[in-house]
């Protein structure tokens, strides 16, 4: 394999000099040579946005750091017709590592990608705060690693550190993606730090990862607004991962996403989260068509999802929340299976459909749920946007559910 050392292209690696041009030159040379490996080692390399090329493996060796600059003006906005940039979530067109329409690409190594999220936040003392910190810099990338329209992708072993100004990984409209052995480490009290965000993609495998996220740890969505052609999100597997989150460890869908189907989540541990598994569609305020920058425009279809062999510990609210509110467009939510789940949480599961769209065919098998209070006076865990569903809740809530089955499943309220 051809190897391209970024130092041979002028990278300094002193943590002060901006090495963007040298890193990009190495990547471009590797791509023009037909592919190979671009190596980052032996230093701290400060950079703004870099773009991957087909056939290129970006390898960050142990002891090396690729560090995002905190100068937001240094990041070029994405200018392309490949996707609808005007529909980017938060209307933010910046990212740190970017690839569009590439094939056979990889980000690997035992090194670190430091997004310097600690420099984008400050303590938040407001009474209704969702996190202990708030974002104070707004021109940084909203996504750290963004791969769109790519195929045959490998992300392996790298530590993604403090991606708090935006999502860690955004995998959008990609095929055949393997994410293995990744480490994502963000302070749980930093806002908007999603871990792995999988959108409108197919055949994605996430395994053996450790994720601490101030926002949702792993997200599976079908937000089609950024695409020229609607595509479903399907055949996603997440296994053998340890997850912590100030929101949901696993979140499925959002307002008016499209099709999400045939997904398996297995052999997982959730520790210290707000919600364990969230399949949630908040309502749209009356008289409005949307209220978030990434609200979709489709009828949501979610089917054939399996959650098995999961341990949920110290979950502050619902271990499982499946809910739709008025104002979101639902075609169907059904064929949900929960098996061999062991949970200690502040609330019990909630499955809450609507009269006009009941949630269908829900099975709990060999599950144990224990309601136990984890909150302290100093706790800042925010409530979910579905607080009315849990008012005075002393038992699991199943409302507007058609075809519910409970096999050897228990619900206990601890004293």
Keywords, please?
415 residues; mainly beta; Pectate Lyase C-like; 2 domains; two-stranded antiparallel sheet; 1 helix
What topology does this entry show?
Elements: E1 3-5, E2 14-18, H1 20-32, E3 36-40, E4 44-47, E5 50-51, E6 56-60, E7 65-68, E8 95-100, E9 103-108, E10 112-114, E11 121-123, E12 133-135, E13 143-148, E14 151-156, E15 159-161, E16 167-172, E17 175-180, E18 183-185, E19 196-199, E20 202-207, E21 210-213, E22 218-221, E23 233-252, E24 259-281, E25 300-315, E26 320-324, E27 330-345, E28 350-352, E29 359-365, E30 368-371, E31 397-399, E32 401-407, E33 410-413
Can you give a write-up of this model?
Residues 383-389 have low confidence and may be disordered. It contains 1 helix and 33 strands. It has one helix spanning 20-32, and strands spanning 3-5, 14-18, 36-40, 44-47, 50-51, 56-60, 65-68, 95-100, 103-108, 112-114, 121-123, 133-135, 143-148, 151-156, 159-161, 167-172, 175-180, 183-185, 196-199, 202-207, 210-213, 218-221, 233-252, 259-281, 300-315, 320-324, 330-345, 350-352, 359-365, 368-371, 397-399, 401-407, 410-413. The chain has 2 domains: 13-215, Single-stranded right-handed beta-helix, Pectin lyase-like (Pectate Lyase C-like, 3 Solenoid), CATH 2.160.20; 240-415, no CATH class. The chain has 415 residues and is mostly beta strands. The strands form 2 sheets. It has a 31-stranded parallel sheet that branches. The protein has a two-stranded antiparallel ribbon with strand order 11-12. The longest helix is centred in the N-terminal third of the chain and has 13 residues, at 20-32. The radius of gyration is 21 Å and the shape is globular. It is 3% helix and 49% strand.
């Amino acid at each position: 394999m051809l190897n391209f050392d970024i130092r041979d292209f002028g990278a300094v690696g002193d943590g002060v000099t901006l090495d963007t041009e040298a890193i990009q030159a190495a990547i471009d040379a590797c791509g023009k040579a037909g592919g190979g490996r671009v190596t980052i080692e032996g230093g701290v390399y400060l950079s703004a946005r870099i773009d991957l090329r087909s056939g290129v493996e970006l390898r960050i060796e142990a002891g090396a750091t690729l560090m995002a600059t905190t100068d937001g003006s240094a990041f070029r906005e994405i200018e392309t017709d490949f996707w609808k940039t005007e529909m980017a979530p938060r209307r933010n067109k910046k990212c740190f590592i970017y690839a569009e329409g590439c094939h056979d690409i990889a980000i690997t190594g035992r090194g670190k990608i430091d997004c310097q999220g600690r420099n984008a936040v400050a303590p938040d003392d407001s009474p209704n705060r969702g996190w202990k910190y708030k974002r104070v810099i707004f021109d940084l990338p909203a996504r750290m690693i963004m791969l769109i329209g790519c195929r045959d992708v490998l992300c392996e072993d790298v530590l993604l550190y403090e991606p708090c100004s935006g999502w860690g990984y955004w995998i959008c409209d990609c095929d055949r993606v393997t994410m293995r052995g990744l480490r994502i480490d963000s302070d749980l009290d930093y806002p908007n730090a999603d871990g792995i965000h999988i959108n409108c993609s197919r055949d994605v495998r996430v395994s053996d990862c450790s994720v601490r996220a101030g926002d949702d740890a792993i997200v599976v969505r079908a937000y089609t607004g950024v695409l020229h052609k609607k595509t479903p999100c399907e055949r996603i597997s997440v296994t053998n991962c340890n997850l912590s989150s100030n929101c949901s460890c696993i979140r499925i869908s959002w307002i008016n996403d499209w099709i999400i189907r045939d997904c398996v989540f297995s052999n997982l541990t959730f520790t210290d989260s707000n919600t364990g598994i969230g399949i949630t569609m908040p309502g749209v305020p009356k008289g409005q068509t949307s209220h978030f920058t990434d609200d979709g425009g489709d009828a949501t279809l979610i089917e054939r999802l399996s959650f098995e062999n999961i341990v949920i510990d110290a979950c502050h609210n619902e271990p499982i929340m499946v809910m739709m509110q008025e104002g979101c467009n639902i075609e169907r939510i059904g064929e949900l299976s929960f098996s061999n789940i062991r949970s200690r949480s502040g609330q019990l599961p909630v499955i809450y459909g609507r009269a006009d769209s009941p949630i269908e065919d829900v099975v709990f098998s060999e599950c144990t749920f224990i309601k136990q209070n984890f909150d302290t006076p100093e706790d800042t865990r925010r409530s979910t946007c579905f607080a009315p569903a849990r008012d005075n809740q002393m038992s699991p809530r199943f409302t507007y559910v058609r075809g519910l089955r409970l096999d050897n499943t228990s619900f206990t309220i601890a004293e």
